[in-house]
């Protein structure tokens, strides 16, 4: 299974911190933010990793990460996304890299403390997609799962609903089979002009090939000053306790 970290975007919610560098290279306690998703993949046994980035600070990743020596790797692969075409568009940059393999995709500003190695081992090579979820209090900010009357089967994924049908939010971690790029090629831009990952996941749902697994540990989306501070405080306190 190949690993893909999506680390593009303008980081506008973090201005002025992102005037000088890409948001995924901002510090979260004692390491750059992107170290956390890299560690999630490496801990799961995924060593062949591509980082998709863009914008004027794209070259900073090579300066910081080099060939992955800090993670026990011998190389990283890099791809450049022109503009801001959405998560699915960024993922399409990795098509040649993934080839006929499956892939685990994680957003570069998502911090996840769960060990996902058993899930990766179970689903590697299987058909379909796996989305990771977390129960949240502010579900209207995310893509949210709607379940049938039994509360077990997914019937829809609703992006930023005004009245969320559940508190089960889809987070920035996904696993896809080799058909993912054919599906991306058939996506149409949303009203925002982007290729949406929710629409991609709904294609798998329509086929009956979508599984969901709920995280038990910490998940933080570090896209705002408040969440960035929250993440730094968490790891600072964890280190003090240990």
Report how far apart the termini are.
Answer: 33 Å
Helix content: 25-40%
- Order of secondary-structure elements: EEEHEHEHHEEHEEEEHHEEH
Tally of helical segments: 8
**Strand pairing plus helix content: what structural class?**
alpha/beta
Largest sheet: 9 strands, mixed
Strand residue percentage: 25-35%
How much is the average pLDDT?
Answer: 95
Return the CATH topology.
Answer: Spore Coat Polysaccharide Biosynthesis Protein SpsA, Chain A
What can be said about this structure in brief?
The chain has 242 residues and is α/β, with parallel strands linked by helices. 27% of the residues lie in helices and 25% in strands.
Features:
alpha/beta, two-stranded antiparallel ribbon, globular, nine-stranded mixed β-sheet, 242 residues, Spore Coat Polysaccharide Biosynthesis Protein SpsA, Chain A, 8 helices
3D structure, described in words:
The protein is an alpha/beta fold. The protein has a single domain, classed as Spore Coat Polysaccharide Biosynthesis Protein SpsA, Chain A (Alpha-Beta Complex), CATH 3.90.550.10. It is 27% helix and 25% strand. The chain contains eight helices and 13 strands. Strands 1, 4, 5, 6, 8, 9, 10, 11 and 12 form a nine-stranded mixed beta sheet that branches. Strands 2-3 form a two-stranded antiparallel ribbon. It has a two-stranded antiparallel ribbon with strand order 7-13. The protein is globular. 40% of the residues are buried. The mean pLDDT is 95.
């Amino acid at each position: 299974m190949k690993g893909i970290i999506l680390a593009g975007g303008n980081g506008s919610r973090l201005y002025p911190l992102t005037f000088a560098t890409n948001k995924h290279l901002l510090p979260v306690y004692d390491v750059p933010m992107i170290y956390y998703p890299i560690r999630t993949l490496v801990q799961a046994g995924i060593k062949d990793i591509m980082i998709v980035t863009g914008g004027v600070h794209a070259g900073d990743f090579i300066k910081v990460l080099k060939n992955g020596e800090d993670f026990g790797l011998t190389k990283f692969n890099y791809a450049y996304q022109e503009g801001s075409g959405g998560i699915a568009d960024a993922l399409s940059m990795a098509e040649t890299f993934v080839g006929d393999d499956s892939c685990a995709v994680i957003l570069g500003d998502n911090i996840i403390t769960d060990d996902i190695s058993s899930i990766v081992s179970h689903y590697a090579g299987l058909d379909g997609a796996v989305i990771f979820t977390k129960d949240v209090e502010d579900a209207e900010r995310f893509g949210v799962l709607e379940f049938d009357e039994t509360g077990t089967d997914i019937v829809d994924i609703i992006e930023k609903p005004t009245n969320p049908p559940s508190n089960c939010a889809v987070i920035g971690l996904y696993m896809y089979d080799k058909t993912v790029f054919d599906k991306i090629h058939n996506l149409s831009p949303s009203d925002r002009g982007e290729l949406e990952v929710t629409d991609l996941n709904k294609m798998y749902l329509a086929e009956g090939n979508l599984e969901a697994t709920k995280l038990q540990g910490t998940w933080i989306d570090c896209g705002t000053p408040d969440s960035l501070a929250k993440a730094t405080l968490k790891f600072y306190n964890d280190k003090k306790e240990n």
